[in-house]
């Protein structure tokens, strides 16, 4: 049986609040996954910084046009941004088109964000591809963060604080990433690896 009158209005308002709250969480997680500040997302989306901040804090109900701009800037489908169910199925499928991609400054390295967006604040994992000579330079993550790079094809070199180590297919490098670090393809063939970053790991001595 449906609801009518004031009860229907209350139900609609409750639904809007729930949707808005989930939207804010999703926008914030995606923004952090790309390591974007509020100002940077504002510049890329054309949505005012203050509005994005209000959306993330669940203080406003954005228009569909605003949601679309944010989805375009965050490189995800609008359906993903609007996903609001808290009890979503355990099995979830994402297509290639739904997978955000980061590119290195030299254009030779690609990071596909294949990790679950809900864990991005403490656990991230990526599908990493590098062309010969490709180099991915990263700033320091928060203190205690650890990165694990498992090479699937080719050969990759990791440099952290002037220390360099190389790994080939079937080998894994683990290193502190709470300081500037660089991943390079030192071979003459394309390289591929799975990268996992634990942002709140115990500090290594």
In words, what does this structure look like?
The chain has 205 residues and is of the alpha+beta class. The protein folds into two domains: 5-82, Orthogonal Bundle (434 Repressor (Amino-terminal Domain)); 99-198, Jelly Rolls. The chain has helices at residues 5-33, 38-45, 49-56, 64-73, 78-82, and strands at 101-103, 109-113, 123-130, 135-138, 146-153, 155-160, 163-168, 172-176, 181-185, 191-198. The strands form two sheets. Strands 1-2-3-10-5-8 form a six-stranded antiparallel β-sheet, with no helix packed on it. A four-stranded antiparallel β-sheet has the order 4-9-6-7, with no helix packed on it. A hairpin with a 5-residue loop joins strand 1 (101-103) and strand 2. Helix 1 (5-33) packs across helix 3. The longest helix is centred in the N-terminal third of the chain and has 29 residues, at 5-33. Mean pLDDT is 81; it is low at 8-12 and 14-19.
Main sheet: strands, sense, barrel: 6 strands, antiparallel
**Distance linking N and C termini:** 62 Å
The SS-based structural class is: alpha+beta
CATH topology of the largest domain: Jelly Rolls
State the gist of this model.
With about 200 residues, this protein is an alpha+beta fold. The chain is built from 5 helices and 10 strands.
Per-chain topology:
Elements: H1 5-33, H2 38-45, H3 49-56, H4 64-73, H5 78-82, E1 101-103, E2 109-113, E3 123-130, E4 135-138, E5 146-153, E6 155-160, E7 163-168, E8 172-176, E9 181-185, E10 191-198
Antiparallel strand pairs: 1-2, 2-3, 3-10, 4-9, 5-8, 5-10, 6-7, 6-9
């Amino acid at each position: 049986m449906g609801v009518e009158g004031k009860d229907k209005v209350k139900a609609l308002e409750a639904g809007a609040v729930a949707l808005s709250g989930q939207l804010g969480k999703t926008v914030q997680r995606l923004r952090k996954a790309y390591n974007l500040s509020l100002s940077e997302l504002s510049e890329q989306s054309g949505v005012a910084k203050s509005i994005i901040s209000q959306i993330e804090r669940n203080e406003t109900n954005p228009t569909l046009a605003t949601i679309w701009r944010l989805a375009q800037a965050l490189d995800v489908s609008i359906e993903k941004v609007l996903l609001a169910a808290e009890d979503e199925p355990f099995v979830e499928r994402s297509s290639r088109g739904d997978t955000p991609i980061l590119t290195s400054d030299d254009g030779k390295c690609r990071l596909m964000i294949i990790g679950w967006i809900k864990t991005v604040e403490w656990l991230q994992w990526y599908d990493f591809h590098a062309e010969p000579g490709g180099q991915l330079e990263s700033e320091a993550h928060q203190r205690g963060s650890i990165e694990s790079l498992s090479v699937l094809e080719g050969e990759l070199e990791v440099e952290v604080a002037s220390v360099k180590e190389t790994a080939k297919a079937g080998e894994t490098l683990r290193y502190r990433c709470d300081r500037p670090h660089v991943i390079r393809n030192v071979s003459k063939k394309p390289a591929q690896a799975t990268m996992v970053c634990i942002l709140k790991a115990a500090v290594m001595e």
